[in-house]
Amino acid sequence: MADNGTAPAAVDAYLDACPAEVRTELRRLRALIREAAPGAQEKISYGMPAFEQHGILVYYAANKQHIGFYPTANGIAAFKDELAAYKSSKGAVQFPFGEPLPAELIRRIVAHRIAENEAKAGAKKAKKR
């Protein structure tokens, strides 16, 4: 993706459209992801903010009663036990509004996703040789 400045602007527009209390939580989540993935680029994908680095790392979104965090099925499966306190599905976890975000867990999930994507990218590169 070319970095022409539009992706972060689109994400900012998404966040700005949310109610203030939701926007604060989404910005905190965005900062945690950025911290864990400083080389990732932001974009809007499937109508949600997303981070990508050798492919999509994670998506996140505002919902009525929670923040949706979408680290793919592998991201959920790898941290299944630690995510047991949250409502989750195959590729998503719900962080209820009013509860602190599990910052360290989010950072570790993002780091896991980076490692997965880099391994896939490395395998593709090796296959082309």
Brief write-up:
The chain has 129 residues and is of the alpha+beta class. The chain has 4 helices and 5 strands. Strands 1-2-3-4-5 form a 5-stranded antiparallel sheet.
Mean pLDDT across the residues is 91
Strand content: 15-25%
Give the CATH topology. Answer: Aspartate Aminotransferase, domain 1
| Lateral strand order in the biggest sheet | 1-2-3-4-5
When the domains are counted, the total is 1
Architecture (CATH level 2) name: Alpha-Beta Complex
Structural class by helix and strand composition = alpha+beta
Regarding CATH, which class?
Alpha Beta
The main sheet comes to: 5 strands, antiparallel
Helix content: 40-55%
Number of helices: 4
Low-confidence blocks of residues: none
Distance between the termini: 24 Å
Protein name: DUF1801 domain-containing protein
Pfam family, one: DUF1801
Organism: Paenibacillus artemisiicola
InterPro entries: YdhG-like (IPR014922)
What report would you give on this structure?
- This is DUF1801 domain-containing protein.
- It comes from Paenibacillus artemisiicola.
- This protein is an alpha+beta fold.
- The protein has one domain (6-128): Aspartate Aminotransferase, domain 1, CATH 3.90.1150.200.
- 47% of the residues lie in helices and 20% in strands.
- It is built from four helices and five strands.
- It has helices at residues 6-16, 20-36, 72-78, 103-128, and strands spanning 41-45, 48-52, 56-62, 66-70, 93-96.
- A five-stranded antiparallel sheet has the order 1-2-3-4-5.
- Strand 3 and strand 4 form a beta hairpin.
- Helix 3 (72-78) crosses helix 4.
